[in-house]
Amino acid sequence: VDKPPVRRVAIFGGTHGNELSGVFLVKHWQENGAEIQRAGMEVKPFLTNPRAVKKCTRYIDCDLNRVFDSDNLGRTVVEDIPYEVRRAQEINQIFGPKGSDDAYDLIFDLHNTTSNMGGTLILENSRDDFTIQMFHYIKNALAPERCPVLLIEHPSLKYATTRSVAKNPVGKYEK
């Protein structure tokens, strides 16, 4: 199947403010972006939850990585709306809207974990040929280092993660 080329990529760090690897990389690339730029492609490093990063806490009011559902993205902005819901709406405006042709082609969301997973790629859809091919490329490029792929697909679950705004969502976890 012919697909249009990937033109817009976002790299997210700080979805959880206490997961610092992505925060450090995003800040580095915001200051020194030459190493991630490619001809014909926009690559945007983005700090997703700056208030939580500043406090070095997972979140302020609720988990940002769980509020990208249609109910929260469509909520009316009022004074007492949780910070992360407001932030999800902002992120959806910048990188989406979710499910639209205008959404970014790829969001690569960087996380940390205390699990002994090493560097692990997260796949949400086993029918996403583009992402599967990209994971194959990444795994080959990292060889002989291990880089497992964790499939978290569920037939009745609609993902509400930060990366779900993109046409091709990718999660990366690092111990």
UniProtKB/TrEMBL annotation:
Instruction: Read off the Pfam families from this record.
Output: AstE_AspA_cat (PF24827)
Q: Look up the record and name the cofactor or cofactors this protein needs.
A: Zn(2+)
Per UniProt, subcellular location reads as: Cytoplasm
**Main localisation:** cytoplasm
Entries under InterPro entries matching the protein = AspA/AstE_fam, AstE_AspA_cat
A GO term for molecular function: metal ion binding
Domain of life of the source:
Eukaryota
Q: Name one GO cellular component term.
A: cytosol
Q: Where is the Succinylglutamate desuccinylase/Aspartoacylase catalytic domain?
A: 6-170
Q: Which residues form a coiled coil?
A: none
What keywords were assigned to this record? Cytoplasm, Hydrolase, Metal-binding, Zinc
The record ties this protein, via PANTHER family, to: ASPARTOACYLASE
Family per record: Belongs to the AspA/AstE family. Aspartoacylase subfamily.
Q: What is this protein called?
A: ACY2 Aspartoacylase
